[in-house]
Automatic annotation (TrEMBL):
This is alpha-L-rhamnosidase. It is an enzyme of class 3 (hydrolase). GO terms for biological process: carbohydrate metabolic process. Pfam families: Bac_rhamnosid, Bac_rhamnosid6H, Bac_rhamnosid_C, Bac_rhamnosid_N. Its EC number is 3.2.1.40. Residues 347-689 form the Alpha-L-rhamnosidase six-hairpin glycosidase domain.
Amino acid sequence: MRSSLIKPGVLLAAIFMLVSNAFAQKDQSGADPAFLHNLATEWQAHWIQIGYPEDSLNHPSQYFSKQFNSLGKVKQARLFITSRGLYEAQINGKRVGNAYLTPGWTSYNKRIAYQAWDVTDLVKKGDNILQVTLGDGWYRGALAFENRRNYFGTKLSLICQLELTYTNGHKEIISSDDSWKSGEGPIRQSSINNGETIDHNRLLQVDKPVKIVDDYAGKLVPTESYPATKHEVFKPINVMTTPKGEKVLDFGQNLVGWVMLKVKGKQGDTITIQHAEVLDKAGNFYIANLRGAQATSTYILKGQGEEFFEPHFTYFGFRYIQIKGLRADPDPEDFTAVAVYADMQPSGTFECSNPMLNKLQHNIQWGQKGNFLYVPTDCPQRDERLGWTGDAQVFARTAAYNFDVQYFFKQWMVDVALDQRKDGAVTFVVPDILDGAAGSAGWGDVSTVVPWTMYQVYGDKEILQQQYESMKKWVGFMTQNSTNDLWNKGDHFGDWLSYHSPTDDGSDAITDKYEIAQCFYAYSTQLVINAARVLGKTEDVNYYSALLNRIKDAYRKEYTTYSGRILSNTQSSYVLALQFDMLLEKDRPTAASYLVSKIRAYDHHLTTGFLGTPYLCHVLSRFGHTKEAYRLLLQDTYPSWLYPIKMGATTIWERWDGIKPDGSFQTTAMNSFNHYAYGAIGDWMYQHIAGIQAGSPGYQQVIIRPDLGGGLTWCKASYICPQGKIIVSWKIADGKFTLDATIPKGSTAVVYLPNAEGKNIQQKNIPAGNYHFSN
Ligand code: RAM
């Protein structure tokens, strides 16, 4: 039986026992956050480092070991462990736990998560050996742009303590200290961007001293997020030789993880596996879009029978691999790709009568799987892979439909607040590795949008409490950078990657960056008001409500015309103004019709970038233009959601035209094929096609309101809300609309049935149960 991660509640009790003397007065069940966060001071263990001169060029993995004798029968064994760098632990040669790339990625210098593993089954009576391997990982390995090294520190270190409880009640703690040994072994180098080298000829040699380095100034906190674990496995669907003569295997899905390899060969044979997302027009292996990331596994064989390899301290975003160094043609049986991502529970399903939309849903989910690995990353493959705040903000609502992401975001938001600058600016990426670069509209708003979205979805007020100061600080930053309530300073990313015309016909859809900034200034202020209401902070409600009025007034004076146009006159200008209620009520329908005319002007194509796209179809639906929303959704020429699918995409692309119609690529400088941001349409599909909406925070009231259109004849979807599973299934047959719905216990529902004329028949306060409606 394998060791398992102790979940936060249990973990608390376990830690409680560990430090019970110091905290004898505390109640085990009370999850007092201060108690959790102060634990670091109670560790008995020391931080330890290797005690020999390091090969500072190659950075081979560091191995630590401790032999211990267990005196009696062990009733319970728990390993508390974390590291600066990534760790993998083994007891008596068996791997501890099912998580990879532990301890995950946080703003390491401020806090590091530790894990508590139940290892009772791994410890035996008598002699035992606890061994831990460290890799550079995010802590000091080649990371992000230009393979920057040593971002968080220059030295790896380990802290762990193994708590043994014997059947006779006696307790013993084995801690990391100067009795441990250190040394080297088969992993010769590893980094997030570049991959890993394993040499099976290098025996484990762990006989050198260690050094105690109790210099960690941050906090050790228990893991409350979802660890990265192995999920789906894939066998190659095709083994080919490309026109250039490369041996390439295709796994059929752009995924994130690695390849497990079985191989036979001679001693010293060197096998390399390089990873790629796409093949080029000619069918050759294409890696230029990975920029500086080598993304290569290198394996050196011992040459004695069948050998097994997989990397430990890296990951790749790929669909294809190129293999070199085999003595024979690759046998597909020897290769297994495994998807590695956050162990979050699936929460939503969506299926309808249009196969292209089903494929879109598949791609959205795979975009999420590939980029939810401890932090929400922009992309998983090139020399970047960062927690870009804008991307996370636009995708959060969709993410929560597909998977339970409550603790994933709740934990990451702690780092958002920790990395937030003193002046309130929210960093572009979290954990921040860009030296405090911060303050872009639409990116910094992650600080308000994500807590509010999570509250809407899970009804959990705690995240609002946790983030409230950070939310206010962000609005304070915008206020401070405003003149007469206009936020018109600083550098912004704007409506990132919006439409640029392939010909110089002047049709680029550029939205003024300060016009956008003003919309987000208003939106974040609104969300602070909402949070203040929930938390009962009346003074704040008053202060921010007055501010919001001034922000909107200033917007209307600066950016709108007498006839109701908006300065930049792009789809995104109208979308943001309408979504965030920037215009007077009477002027909104006119603005919505300008939006529609802007869509028609591009022959029913969207022109929005990262910031406009998530709200585009929502705004169309809200103002009675659902038909136009469906038309956009079903568009399959550039720019559109379905165009990449026509071009063979299995994930969401960074750009609307990552691969152009003639098969050529967009710029190598920025062309990821696994970027979830544009997948934010998923939210509209659940809310408007399936019709599953939250009528109140945490779905105590469910709204079921499908909007028919796009020639769809059926849709089946489900969503696990905090009360249980909501199921909606509707169809149109013989001119008749029928809907089946399941409402979970603890929720009531309002169901709207669309009829042929587009009028709605409403059924209110429907209690839990299964229902059949027809119209
Ligand atoms: C790119 C990232 C990300 C985006 C920023 C502005 O490099 O991939 O998606 O948020 O830039």
